[in-house]
Write the structure tokens for this entry.
Amino acid sequence: GRLYFNNNQIDEAITQFERVISLMPNHSNAHYSLGVAYQKKGEKTKALQEFEKVQELNPGNADVQAKIESLK
């Protein structure tokens, strides 16, 4: 997913991050990366959902909290 993201192939990155999450639903890094990809694509609601999931899995992450605040 990261390779696609870094090459600005956002839709492909999203597909890969979703695949990881389907196999490992509590993989916080995949949720975070998916949130960043959605944010880059302009899908704020989906990005917010992913960042909130990361916060649920890893409470107290200041970076994630800042991303949530920026999307509200």
The two ends are 26 Å apart (CA to CA).
